[in-house]
Structure formats: structure tokens, C-alpha cells
Amino acid sequence: FNFTINYNKPQNGATPLFNGNISETSWNTLNTDTSTRGYSYKYDALNRILSATGTPNTNYNVSGITYDKNGNIITLNRNGWQNSSSYADMDILSYEYHQNTNQLKNVNDTGNANYGFKDGSELATEYTYDANGNTLTDANKNVTSVEYNHLNMPTKITVTGANAGVLQYKYSADGVKLRKIKTQGGTSTTTDYNGNYVYENGDLKQITQPEGYIEPNGSSWQYVYRYTDFWGNTRLTYADDNGDGIITSTEIRREQNYYPGGLEHVGYNGALRGVKNNLKTYQKQEFTEDLGLNTHEWRYRVSDPATLRFWQVDPLAEDYTYNSTYAFQENKLGMGIELEGLELYPINGADMFNYSGGGKPVLTFGLHNIVLPTAERNTNGGAGAFVDNVLGNIWNGIATSWNEGMQGKTLTEMTVEGVRGMEEMADRVTSGEGSIQDVEAAAAMILVRKVKGKSLSAKGRSGKQARLREWMNDDKASSADRGWLKNDQRHIQTGNKKALRIPRNGRKSPGRKKQDKGYELAHKNNAPASQGHGYKGSLVKNHAEHKVETRIHKHRYKKKD
């Protein structure tokens, strides 16, 4: 499997991009059809996807995407396989919404209603919702009812028609899926999820592992491997069936390629219909084909790749008021991945080490003719030489980046080369062939990461007093909070206090070493201190509630946050 991403140096006529958006992708496999396929992407000024033009032909084009003012999709067109020689106009979709809401009312397809988005209804109202904004019915999939738990995750889905049946789900207290029961045609199938172990009707069916999964093969077990792309999408699944150490096209279990948003291509390399080999497919999420649902089950929501929408309201909607509460990945499909059904997580070619350069050129401050010298290694031995060489490694990294930037190399290219160098170094160390130079280089990288982390965290802790002074006069603050802060301000002016206190925090309780912390000045969930974000826009929040929100966002919680 070969996969290429282009940002600012497209090869197939796309527009060069310098803001982290992907300009082009291309791929091919040593499967039955070895053709190189790809997409050239276009975005609007808000980084939302507008089109994906296929190469070398337009058989899998996506085009005509438009949005309303809330970020809801209004129109979307797709080409694709339709069991004929024609690939054009598989989907020509128009969306209608319930008045004054982000909730979908109906979708009309004037393309081929049997492929891509399957238009199974012509009703004026095809989608209904409960009081929490969860999807209750979907007439196009013959979903007649959906029941939800307190976390707004589905517990029972009822489908009628050709795919008639019932799906039931059980979760742990914090929302982890534990069991799925499918009842269809008088037969019941129970799937249990226990960490990496997946059971079907009590029998161990699959053991997931980082490179794929292990499945039963008679009296033994078979390793099945996955190739994944930049976003973590499963693209090629294969196994060494004859044990000769060579993978041929006949040993490929499945090839999976995707439209933007997760709908699978069909029509080449055997992918004419869904074949359930992989539990996790698009962005490592489970794809549910049961009862014709064809949805992705994320940690916090369910998405429909045919409509590019979620079934439920975004749990973090208050942090993203500029965007539709049902939009998939903020419609920014070239900028990153969907983080467990919660929010867009931006990634680009330089993010392998949390750098944010993408395809941007190195900043040189206009000093284009300066070449920085590199430090020579101190060979005298001893602790002093070791320290010299660690610091020399850090300087040489800066100098090399600067000098290569003078020659036009991008941060992405440098990062990829750096990753390869680190992999080679790790191979030497693990094989017992590592040298003192490898140890010095590793120490330099650790030191840079430590300094960078502390610098960002310190930056993120700045501005607390300034924000409290703003809060003192903010209409969003309660009168009690404003009164508390104004009282502190008077004490500061008279010299009795040195700083403003966070409102509603009491004094230290008798017998306790620390003050009881009921409230705190909380960073925005998408702008943590650990990433260098200050207190601008922060709010006074209950300590316990902020802790839960922080865990949801997968930022490591610290008491000083």
C-alpha cells in the first residue's frame, strides 16, 4: 500500500495550500487493480470542504457542497459505482432542516437512490428528534425508533422493512460499549466487548492488537494485519495465509478506500459490497452494517457517512457556538480527524511531534543569506563532554533547520526526515548497537521537550489577575462574583491584600493544610494551559465540573488547571 499527501507541492493540478489543509492525496496497492487513485481538495474561507476531485478520472468525485449560515450541509454531489459503466451522479443530495434548528428534516436524492446515500423515503419529514436533540427516526433507513441512555447513546434501535430487526446496546457507567445484541429473523447474535477481546455468542471471535487483529483459524489463530493511512483509516487488510513471509494479492482480505467523511468506495479491487472483516475502519471507529444502518460508532456519538452528520448533538456544543451541533468534524475534512465524536482534532505532516508547521516554510526573519555553523562533537570523554555534546545536538538541530530552510525545504519535509532518523536510532538501540552519540541525541530531544512543555505551561498560566479584573466588570459574572472581586480590589488599594482571589473559594478549613477549592478560573476546554493558552476567555467554574470536562477532552487533569 502506497499513500502520498501533498500540502504545498501538489502534483495533479491542485492549489498549493499553506494553512495545514491537505491539497492532494494519492494511493495505490498491489491488489488486482494497481492503478494510482487520488483526490484534489478545495475548501472555503472557513476551511470547510467544498469538493474532492478524483484522479486520474472523476469516477469518485465529490462536488457541489454548500452550507447554510450555521454550517449545515445544503447540497452535496457524489459520483460512484452503480452496477453499470456509468459512475456519474450517484448522489445529488439536497438537505432540508426543521425550521430554526440544526435538525435534519429530509434529504432528497435526484441521483441514483439505490447507491451511496440510499433515498428510501419521499416523506416531507424523514427525521425526527427527542427533547435532547437525539435522532429518533430515519425514514430512509426504516429506523422507526431509537432509545437513548442518560449519556445520549443509543440503547435500542428498531428497524422495519427489508432489514427489519432490533439492535440493543449496553454500556459501562462512563459510556464504554460493553455489549451489542442483534435480533433479526428470529435469530439473536450477542457481541461482547472486553478490552481487546471481542466475543460473539460467548466464543472469542477476535483479539485486536496495534497492527491489526488475531482471529480463530480452526484449532489455531491467524494474525491479520492492517495498513492504515495518515488519519488512521484502515486501507488494506491482509494475512500471510501460507506462512511463506510473502504477501500476494490473493492474501489481501479487503481493500478499503473512502470518500471524505468515511463513505466507502465500491467498484474496484473486490470492494463491491460490505465484507465484515474489520471491526474498526474509518478513523479507527467501528462501522455498523447491521440492519442496513451503515453508521460509525464513536465514543460519544453515532455518525452517518452518507449524510456527513451525527445522530446526536455535540456534547461540547457550548465550546463551538459558531458551528452546527450535528456537523461531522466541523466540515473541515482536510485539517484533521474527528476526536471520538466530540470535536475536530487538527493534524498535519509536522504533528508527529506536536509541531504545527505543516507545509509552511521556515521563518527566517528576512535574514536569507546567513548560514549557521554547526557544533563539532567533544571527544574528550567524561560528564563535561557529554553535556557539551547534548547542548551541541540541540544547537545543530536549530542550525540544520535554518540552513535547510534557506534552501527551500519545508518543516514537514524536515519532520519526516527527522522521524526516519529517530526510527533508525531506535533500531540501533533496541538491537544493542546504540552508540554514545545516540544517547547524546536522545538526551537532547528529551531536554527540548521538557523545556518546550514547561514554557507552554508557564505561558498558559499567565494573565490570571488580568482575567479576574475583567470578570469583575463582566455582565456574564454573577452579582456575587462581581461583589467579591470588587471587595478584594478595595483591599488591594488599601494595602490589605496583594492579589484578587477566585470568587466563592472559602478560607482554609481548620485542621486542613490547604484551602478548600470549590471554584477555579478554568481554561476553555479547547484551549488548555498545557498548550500555551492563557486565561483569556476563561470562566469561574465549579472545580469538580471542570475536572470532568477536562477528562472528556482528554487533556491530563492537574489541580492547578
Automatic annotation (TrEMBL):
Residues 473-491, 542-551 have a biased composition (Basic and acidic residues). Residues 498-515, 552-561 have a biased composition (Basic residues). Residues 473-561 are annotated as: Disordered. This is RHS repeat-associated core domain-containing protein.
